Here is the input.
Amino acid sequence: MRFVYHPDAGVPVLEIGGETYTHIFKARRHDKRAPLTLCNLTDNHLYTYRITHLDRNKARLELVDSAPCDSCVPCGGGRAAHLIWAIVDPKIVEKTLPTLNELGVSKLTLFFARYSQKPFSPNLSRLHKILTRSCEQCGRSTLLEIEVLPDLESVLSRYGDCVALEFGGVALEGANLIENLRGKSIIIGAEGGFSPDERARLPHKVSVAGELVLRSESACVFAASVLRLL
Here is the structure.
């Protein structure tokens, strides 16, 4: 664990309790004599506190130091990585989210496609918790942004220059990766891909993995990995 997330990290005196207290002192068994590093995931700083008081269900901390954190760069060269993912089973999204966070995805847009599993809907508070735990483990000091849009039309009106990962598109090879993907928002379909109507409305399309059929979450991890290297 690189640090502990707390939204108020940075204030001179901080009292923690509840789930955060349990996580630090009961699950992680943090030594009360050791300093504690906190991060608020908004200002790209790490804050070092000393524990001045500890009882059975709360702790009092005093700030002793702060320093900028360099682990917020989202992808290669500091460019933002944006994935647009058709909503699938929330359990799949939750399982994949930490990997996307570790790979430096800056923004994840979720939308309801024709083949999205319904009536599933993202639990944003749960996704936020998953992301904060991921940041604590990998050391990322900025939170991946998540937005939810109602349909493909809303996506295309907001991100008209996106690139769709789709079978039959321009084959991605080493020579054309940068040309086709750098600086682009990448849109990925649900299980089963896009419907014929959606496919006809997609902008520039690229294909991956040859004739192999990727799972929706595998395509997301592939895209995030490529963007990390560009």
Summary: Helices lie at 18-27, 90-102, 124-138, 152-158, 177-181, 196-201, 216-229. The domain at 76-229 is CATH 3.40.1280.10 (Alpha/beta knot). Residues 73-77 have pLDDT under 50 and may be disordered. The longest helix spans residues 124-138.
